[in-house]
Amino acid sequence: MNFPRTAMPWAWKHDSMQVRSQTERRLCNRRALFATFLTVLVSSLALPPVHGSQTGSDGCKAASNWTAEDVIATHDQNNDDTPRKFQDLNVLGFVTPWNAGGKDVAVRQASRGRLDDVSPVTWQMHPDGLAGGHDFDENFYADLSKAGARIYPRILFEAHKWSLDDFRELSDDPSPMVARITQMCSKGGFQGVVLEIWQALLATGALSGKEKDKFIMLAMALGENLRKDANLRTVLVLPPYSSRKSAGQVNSSDIAKLKIAFNFFVVMTYDFSVPGSQPGPMAPIAWVRAVATYLARECSLGEKLLVGFNFYGLDFLKSSPKGAASTDRHIVGHEVIALLKEHRPQLLWSDGVGEHAFVYQKEEEQHVVFYPSIPSIAQRIALLRDVGCGGVAIWELGQGLDYFFDEF
């Protein structure tokens, strides 16, 4: 998905280095050249400036002063003696079966009061019924409930399984689907449900034709009926619309209509850059602000909007020998720590992007990594509070670092 970007260059900040040997000078030159490359490259993304504090909450170290040693020394620490910072923000975390550590993180952080809601990612909705659900057991759900978390299973409407005619048939009578979801939640003791249907509606063209209003009413009917008939809290996942233009034929009044049918809306404010693209940030702060402002204010979602926080990053391959098999890849917390320990790279920060990155050399391959940090999380929390959003949706539990949760 392409997002509009307005013109304004940005540049990385880094500390001066004392070069004491020819080898160190060569290394410094490589880093400087690559930092220059990043400046020119990412300035082509044309992000507007964001003027704000470089400090994290509570006056912590300036973002541009963080080092690899800081992260290595503190990433696995949680301060259980400090209260939650933002009682007014709702924190939802997704947990998936393919991330083995996610369940432990969910229970531990819920028991610390840092997670309000947990959404297991294991169900799919097909035209002929509900599938999945065997990836998590009753003991996990019992542990979550004991820790104080509400459980909202995510139900994915898989786009390749649905046609426009399927959605037409569903809109004629959504009650059987509502009954199936209600039964599943009742059996599992779940308090709500996350519906990921919007992307399938977009993929089938349901939201771009003359029947658009019919299918918006379908989404509303699912949300309203689940709330009223089953007393479930309902959450709808939305794409990162940042303007009227980016939303296509779905206008702000269309989205505003949905407000009465759902308790919360999750917006996927990440994957601005993806594997195969030019190296760049996962969720540049100006873009996140544009998305949050459009949905919270122009679309009137306000405190019902949960802004997506990625707890994973990207490792971009900048250069490699001909014929090398290495490619860009997603990267998670423990892999980032391993790279920091092995290479001790300099952390690079941009005010205009609000993300940390670092460069490392692996044999003949040159890489650049973008990954969340304490300053980037603190900056985004300040942003969503400023815009008037209701909280955070983390993708996904188990991919991040323990100390991220102390920012909530």
Automatic annotation (TrEMBL):
<comment type="similarity">
    <text>Belongs to the glycosyl hydrolase 18 family.</text>
</comment>
<dbReference type="InterPro" id="IPR001223">
    <property type="entry name" value="Glyco_hydro18_cat"/>
</dbReference>
<protein>
    <recommendedName>
        <fullName>Chitinase domain-containing protein 1</fullName>
    </recommendedName>
</protein>
<dbReference type="InterPro" id="IPR029070">
    <property type="entry name" value="Chitinase_insertion_sf"/>
</dbReference>
<feature type="domain" description="GH18">
    <location>
        <begin position="89"/>
        <end position="408"/>
    </location>
</feature>
<dbReference type="InterPro" id="IPR011583">
    <property type="entry name" value="Chitinase_II/V-like_cat"/>
</dbReference>
<dbReference type="Pfam" id="PF00704">
    <property type="entry name" value="Glyco_hydro_18"/>
</dbReference>
<dbReference type="InterPro" id="IPR017853">
    <property type="entry name" value="GH"/>
</dbReference>
<dbReference type="GO" id="GO:0005975">
    <property type="term" value="P:carbohydrate metabolic process"/>
</dbReference>
<dbReference type="GO" id="GO:0070492">
    <property type="term" value="F:oligosaccharide binding"/>
</dbReference>
<dbReference type="GO" id="GO:0012505">
    <property type="term" value="C:endomembrane system"/>
</dbReference>
<dbReference type="GO" id="GO:0008061">
    <property type="term" value="F:chitin binding"/>
</dbReference>
